[in-house]
């Protein structure tokens, strides 16, 4: 008798604790869900909290159980934040500025060269000359129009048609195949050029359903158009002054989508402008990737600028005000890091520089 | 990646420069890239000389970004016009742009600024004596 009583009491106590815990679960879930976005993470943390509360419950007064659970939940959330934060902060370290040389690269390049050559060969003499003059020699459409006695718009439209044709011929050459029917070519050209009127005339959608070959080939052609419409992320070439303006406008558009305030948008656009200008000035060419991120706790925009320039000899000094190697004001990097929430630089002499910067959206 | 808009090689820059009495009013109505900023500088300097202007107002209300290069170009431009004997007032800097410029660590030096075009004209009248007195003797 004397031995069984405390055992009974313990069982009773454990049941009570168990009951209280079940009642506490919604409260704990509420505390965590308010701070975390990802439902999977919320579940994990609720379970973890319950497990911890259960181990300590027997030592706690009943009234203290709820506040204790809330504190545990909050601590776990904070810990989770710190872990995510650390992972994100170090993410740029995984970025290797030098892309590894893969053995298949050469073969792929050779194939691609052959495909481009044979695609070019299938253009007419005039089309080829116009395209090469514009794309390779960099001649302006206005200048070319004046020479041939036509208008700028006509030359631009001709270039557009030629590019569309080149894309189709390139894919055909790459696949090393012939078109199954005489209807295929006009349909593919209309798709490649994004010419909706012509697509309707030809009933392009109907043809794609019937023709297995064209529906396969149209994949990459349409991908290109969709890639242009992708709003969440942009990959922009940074080679000239004009690209700097384009980059900051795109950055503003992308950041606006996740609800940055107008002031923040201006800060972001200014930072992009500074960084893109550096890439143009020091590296001649580079690229910039702008994308939004949604962490469990907050949203933000990440801008990664990469170039294959000479690299920055002293990153620490480059982040100090007034350090300039070209007689500028030395505001670019330190200024951008003040405008953004985070800015990391990975630079290798002679290989290039990668700058990753992040701005968090302040109002949830 | 093909870039389709090379045709704008020497296209007119997005700034209109109007002459009003002894003043020039330059309104920037779209974002300028570095090259266009340089051409704008040269064009303005040329017109000050041609019209013997005493004051210049640069209206940048349409600019959504003023980075270090843009700010410096404007400051340099104001100094150049000062050397020509004309006073430059920059008007219409957007509040967000002002915020970003300060964060960036950029300042316009001792270049005069005003809220808008109206205020800018009043300030110019004040500084140049309505365009009758020498701008240099009144400027500081």
Structure commentary:
- The complex is a heterodimer of chains A (364) and B (140).
- Chain A has 3 domains: 85 residues, Rna Polymerase Sigma Factor, Chain: A (Orthogonal Bundle); 126 residues, Orthogonal Bundle (Arc Repressor Mutant, subunit A), CATH 1.10.10.10; 129 residues, 2-Layer Sandwich (Heat Shock Protein 90), CATH 3.30.565.10.
- A 5-stranded antiparallel beta sheet of chain A has the order 1-2-3-5-4.
- Chain A contains 15 helices and 5 strands.
- Chain B has 140 residues and is an alpha/beta fold.
- Chain B has a single domain, classed as 2-Layer Sandwich (Transcription Regulator spoIIAA), CATH 3.30.750.24.
- Helices cover 43% and strands 18% of the residues of chain B.
- Chain B has 5 helices and 5 strands; from the N terminus they run E-E-H-E-H-E-H-E-H-H.
- In chain B, helix 2 links the parallel strand 3 and strand 4.
- Chains A and B meet through helix 6, helix 7, helix 12, helix 13 and helix 15 of A and helix 1, helix 2 and helix 3 of B.
